[in-house]
Amino acid sequence: MSNPHDDPGRRPPPPRQGEPYSSYPGGPPPRHQGDPYQGPPRQQPGGPWQAPPPGHAPRPAGPEAGYPRGKGLLGNLFDFTFNHMVTPQMIRGAYLFAVLFTSMTAVLWLIVGLWLFQYGWLLTVFIVLFTPPLWLLSLIGIRMFLEFLINQFKITEHLKAMREREGLR
To answer: How far apart (Å, rounded) are the C-alpha atoms in residues 113 and 10?
Structure first.
Protein backbone atom coordinates (compact mmCIF):
# COMPACT_ATOMS: atom_id res chain seq x y z
CA MET A 1 0.00 0.00 0.00
CA SER A 2 1.34 3.40 -0.96
CA ASN A 3 -0.23 5.42 1.83
CA PRO A 4 0.60 4.28 5.37
CA HIS A 5 -2.75 5.63 6.58
CA ASP A 6 -4.60 3.19 4.29
CA ASP A 7 -3.30 0.26 6.28
CA PRO A 8 -6.41 -1.49 7.68
CA GLY A 9 -4.47 -2.54 10.76
CA ARG A 10 -3.86 1.09 11.76
CA ARG A 11 -7.40 2.38 11.36
CA PRO A 12 -9.97 2.15 14.11
CA PRO A 13 -13.30 0.60 13.14
CA PRO A 14 -15.91 3.08 11.92
CA PRO A 15 -18.14 4.53 14.66
CA ARG A 16 -21.49 2.98 15.23
CA GLN A 17 -24.44 5.26 14.63
CA GLY A 18 -24.76 7.81 17.40
CA GLU A 19 -21.33 7.16 18.93
CA PRO A 20 -18.52 9.70 18.59
CA TYR A 21 -15.08 8.71 17.27
CA SER A 22 -13.57 9.38 20.67
CA SER A 23 -15.23 6.25 22.09
CA TYR A 24 -12.93 4.09 19.94
CA PRO A 25 -9.36 3.24 20.74
CA GLY A 26 -6.97 5.63 19.12
CA GLY A 27 -9.56 8.39 18.58
CA PRO A 28 -10.37 9.82 15.17
CA PRO A 29 -8.08 9.10 12.24
CA PRO A 30 -5.48 11.82 11.66
CA ARG A 31 -6.19 14.57 9.11
CA HIS A 32 -3.45 15.67 6.76
CA GLN A 33 -3.22 18.77 4.65
CA GLY A 34 -3.00 16.81 1.41
CA ASP A 35 -5.95 14.57 2.29
CA PRO A 36 -8.95 15.77 0.21
CA TYR A 37 -11.45 13.62 2.10
CA GLN A 38 -12.54 15.33 5.29
CA GLY A 39 -15.03 12.73 6.46
CA PRO A 40 -18.79 12.74 6.48
CA PRO A 41 -20.61 16.09 6.77
CA ARG A 42 -21.28 17.18 10.31
CA GLN A 43 -24.93 17.27 11.32
CA GLN A 44 -26.39 20.25 13.13
CA PRO A 45 -27.57 19.60 16.67
CA GLY A 46 -31.25 18.71 16.75
CA GLY A 47 -31.25 16.47 13.68
CA PRO A 48 -32.89 16.71 10.27
CA TRP A 49 -36.35 17.39 11.71
CA GLN A 50 -35.44 20.97 12.55
CA ALA A 51 -36.93 23.90 10.69
CA PRO A 52 -35.29 24.65 7.34
CA PRO A 53 -32.39 27.12 7.36
CA PRO A 54 -33.19 30.79 6.71
CA GLY A 55 -33.87 31.52 3.08
CA HIS A 56 -35.36 28.09 2.37
CA ALA A 57 -39.13 28.05 2.18
CA PRO A 58 -41.04 24.85 2.82
CA ARG A 59 -42.23 23.04 -0.29
CA PRO A 60 -45.73 24.12 -1.25
CA ALA A 61 -48.40 21.45 -1.19
CA GLY A 62 -51.10 21.26 -3.79
CA PRO A 63 -51.31 22.80 -7.24
CA GLU A 64 -48.55 25.35 -6.50
CA ALA A 65 -45.96 22.56 -6.73
CA GLY A 66 -45.12 21.51 -10.27
CA TYR A 67 -47.30 22.56 -13.16
CA PRO A 68 -50.29 24.74 -12.36
CA ARG A 69 -53.67 23.21 -13.11
CA GLY A 70 -55.01 26.09 -15.19
CA LYS A 71 -58.67 26.64 -16.06
CA GLY A 72 -59.81 23.10 -16.58
CA LEU A 73 -59.43 20.69 -19.45
CA LEU A 74 -60.88 22.91 -22.18
CA GLY A 75 -58.91 25.96 -21.05
CA ASN A 76 -55.70 23.94 -20.88
CA LEU A 77 -56.23 22.61 -24.41
CA PHE A 78 -55.84 26.16 -25.72
CA ASP A 79 -52.76 26.99 -23.62
CA PHE A 80 -50.19 27.56 -26.36
CA THR A 81 -47.35 28.08 -23.86
CA PHE A 82 -47.73 24.48 -22.60
CA ASN A 83 -47.49 25.63 -18.99
CA HIS A 84 -50.62 23.64 -18.17
CA MET A 85 -50.50 19.91 -18.86
CA VAL A 86 -53.60 18.14 -20.18
CA THR A 87 -52.38 14.53 -20.28
CA PRO A 88 -52.35 13.96 -16.48
CA GLN A 89 -55.97 15.14 -16.37
CA MET A 90 -57.02 12.81 -19.19
CA ILE A 91 -55.09 9.68 -18.18
CA ARG A 92 -57.92 8.13 -16.14
CA GLY A 93 -60.38 8.53 -18.97
CA ALA A 94 -57.87 7.10 -21.45
CA TYR A 95 -57.35 4.03 -19.23
CA LEU A 96 -61.09 3.56 -18.78
CA PHE A 97 -61.60 3.78 -22.56
CA ALA A 98 -58.75 1.29 -23.16
CA VAL A 99 -60.17 -1.22 -20.64
CA LEU A 100 -63.64 -0.98 -22.15
CA PHE A 101 -62.37 -1.22 -25.73
CA THR A 102 -60.08 -4.17 -24.97
CA SER A 103 -62.81 -5.98 -23.05
CA MET A 104 -65.40 -5.47 -25.77
CA THR A 105 -62.91 -6.69 -28.38
CA ALA A 106 -62.19 -9.82 -26.30
CA VAL A 107 -65.91 -10.55 -25.91
CA LEU A 108 -66.38 -10.06 -29.65
CA TRP A 109 -63.55 -12.52 -30.35
CA LEU A 110 -65.18 -15.07 -28.04
CA ILE A 111 -68.50 -14.67 -29.87
CA VAL A 112 -66.77 -15.05 -33.24
CA GLY A 113 -64.94 -18.11 -31.93
CA LEU A 114 -68.19 -19.72 -30.82
CA TRP A 115 -69.84 -18.84 -34.13
CA LEU A 116 -66.96 -20.49 -36.00
CA PHE A 117 -67.73 -23.77 -34.20
CA GLN A 118 -70.08 -24.67 -37.04
CA TYR A 119 -67.10 -24.72 -39.43
CA GLY A 120 -64.72 -26.65 -37.20
CA TRP A 121 -64.01 -27.12 -33.53
CA LEU A 122 -60.22 -26.55 -33.72
CA LEU A 123 -60.43 -22.83 -34.50
CA THR A 124 -63.07 -22.36 -31.78
CA VAL A 125 -60.86 -24.04 -29.16
CA PHE A 126 -57.89 -21.94 -30.28
CA ILE A 127 -59.82 -18.66 -30.03
CA VAL A 128 -61.52 -19.51 -26.71
CA LEU A 129 -58.23 -20.59 -25.12
CA PHE A 130 -56.11 -17.67 -26.28
CA THR A 131 -58.53 -14.73 -26.00
CA PRO A 132 -58.44 -14.35 -22.16
CA PRO A 133 -54.60 -14.37 -21.89
CA LEU A 134 -54.32 -11.94 -24.81
CA TRP A 135 -56.91 -9.70 -23.14
CA LEU A 136 -54.91 -9.75 -19.90
CA LEU A 137 -51.60 -9.09 -21.66
CA SER A 138 -53.19 -6.19 -23.56
CA LEU A 139 -54.40 -4.61 -20.32
CA ILE A 140 -51.00 -5.07 -18.69
CA GLY A 141 -49.25 -3.46 -21.67
CA ILE A 142 -51.67 -0.52 -21.75
CA ARG A 143 -51.33 0.00 -17.99
CA MET A 144 -47.52 -0.11 -18.17
CA PHE A 145 -47.47 2.42 -20.99
CA LEU A 146 -49.80 4.82 -19.17
CA GLU A 147 -47.86 4.45 -15.91
CA PHE A 148 -44.64 5.26 -17.76
CA LEU A 149 -46.31 8.29 -19.28
CA ILE A 150 -47.63 9.58 -15.96
CA ASN A 151 -44.23 8.99 -14.32
CA GLN A 152 -42.65 11.27 -16.91
CA PHE A 153 -45.05 14.02 -15.91
CA LYS A 154 -44.38 13.43 -12.21
CA ILE A 155 -40.63 13.65 -12.80
CA THR A 156 -41.15 16.92 -14.65
CA GLU A 157 -43.30 18.30 -11.83
CA HIS A 158 -40.76 17.34 -9.19
CA LEU A 159 -37.89 18.86 -11.16
CA LYS A 160 -39.85 22.08 -11.61
CA ALA A 161 -40.63 22.20 -7.88
CA MET A 162 -36.94 21.66 -7.09
CA ARG A 163 -35.92 24.47 -9.44
CA GLU A 164 -38.45 26.81 -7.87
CA ARG A 165 -37.38 25.86 -4.36
CA GLU A 166 -33.72 26.50 -5.22
CA GLY A 167 -34.64 29.80 -6.89
CA LEU A 168 -33.34 28.77 -10.31
CA ARG A 169 -36.46 29.82 -12.18
So the answer is: 78
